[in-house]
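Hi Q.,

Before the meeting this afternoon, I wanted you to have the zinc ion prediction in hand. No need to reply - just skim if you have a minute. The sequence and ligand are here:
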Amino acid sequence: MMEEALKSLRKGEIVLVFDAANRERETDMILAAEHVTPEHIRILRNDAGGLICAPVSAENAEKLGIPFMTDILKVSSEKYPVLKRLSPHDIPYDEKSAFSITVNHRKTFTGITDNDRALTIKELALLCKDGQHEKFGDFFRSPGHVTLLRAADGHVLRRRGHTEMSIALMEMAGLTGVAVCCEMMDNRRGNSLSTEDARLYAKEHDLIFLNGSDLIKAYKEYKFEL
Ligand code: 5RP
Ligand code: CA
Ligand code: ZN
Ligand code: ZN
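Predicted structure with the ligand bound:
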């Protein structure tokens, strides 16, 4: 199953990843940022419906110099005291948020269209792939319409979010450490899509469905073998 998932990702296909019953209990659509197209963004918008984000590996995030949003807020709270009061110390499903800054590529217009978001995400992946991290500010502006997520150091060995799981998949597939993820929502009940329905969607659309625990196990084996 894991090999199939990695093959799909290399081909630019979407895979579905459920995190865990004791975490968000969400299934995200995940794909490689270097392969993203406007068509993918349309599918994420219409069929997933959550927030379209771009997980960035800890290594790429470090080279780009992008901080966690929590660190930005902490520093800024000197000048804006309300930010201290907004501290996210009470997230019900995890200790730490992965949110970083939002960006748009400078060649986008509003930044929100399928074409614009695909451009922003793909160009970020290519910038990282080419090792041009120091040119980040030449080609991107912030704020923007793509939320960057910063993977924890050690990735899934440290934090078991979709952020780290996306990056673990990229690493195992030999793809650039930038991904795209979006939570699958339920269109009728106002909740996240149930695992059952997410599995059904995968079956109907011929997509691979992965369980977070299997993914993490495979990543540990992969790291051990290296
Ligand atoms: C951004 C989120 C999603 O849950 C996304 O899956 C990444 O977060 P995490 O790493 O916490 O799972 O919060 O929409
Ligand atoms: Ca989350
Ligand atoms: Zn998540
Ligand atoms: Zn979520």
